[in-house]
Write a structure and sequence with these properties.
The protein has about 170 residues and is α+β, with helices and mostly antiparallel strands. It is built from six helices and seven strands. It has a seven-stranded mixed β-sheet, sandwiched between helices. Helix 1 packs across helix 3. The longest helix has 16 residues. About 30% of the residues are buried.
Length: about 170
């Protein structure tokens, strides 16, 4: 099988596989925070998360195998900012660079197809592998907050994408 990854629009047939990667409630909450009422979630509930004009869910595939998932969402009416959410990679494929590639493809799509200049996301502090992955593609921590997840207080980081190539080009022409 080739390692050529593409992002394609998410559909309900992808949901069962994606939801199966959350093997326990803790992992599920790391991925979904408090967006779902119950664990495990059902495919129809996943579809409900993506209702609305500002939601763009994608499935990452290698060949015909689903390997990841991400949501791109416009949180503001002016569509100047895109927010990444529900980022997940098949747990059996972690450590193989799929998360990094998924993020790179989503960043490229957001910047080149959707025309945004700002990309943000949130990650829990108790998810160090996700934090490291986000930092590896250029996200920087810009703030922190706390959230009540299943009766526990979890620290979260707000992150923003910093495009070093664009930054370098802008500085070169100033």
């Amino acid at each position: 099988m080739s390692d050529f990854m593409i992002l394609r629009p998410f559909n309900i047939n992808d949901a069962k596989a994606i939801l199966s990667w959350c093997k326990d409630k803790h992992t599920f909450r790391l991925w979904s925070a408090d967006r779902y009422k119950e664990y495990p979630a059902k495919p129809e509930e996943m579809m409900e998360q993506y209702e609305g004009d500002n939601m763009y869910p994608f499935t990452a595939v290698v060949g015909d195998e689903i390997v990841g998932h991400i949501l791109l969402r416009f949180p503001l009416e002016d569509k100047s900012v895109i927010r990444f959410g529900f980022v997940i990679v098949d747990d059996s494929k972690r450590g193989m660079g799929y998360g990094r590639r998924l993020l790179q493809l989503a960043i490229d799509h957001a910047c080149n197809q959707m025309g945004v200049k700002t990309i943000t996301l949130g990650v829990f502090a108790n998810n160090p592998s996700a934090l490291k992955c986000y930092q590896s593609v250029g996200f920087k921590i810009t703030g922190e907050d706390s959230y009540m997840i299943d009766g526990e207080k979890w620290k979260g980081y707000e992150m923003k994408y910093v495009n070093y190539i664009q930054k370098a080009l802008n500085e070169a022409f100033e």
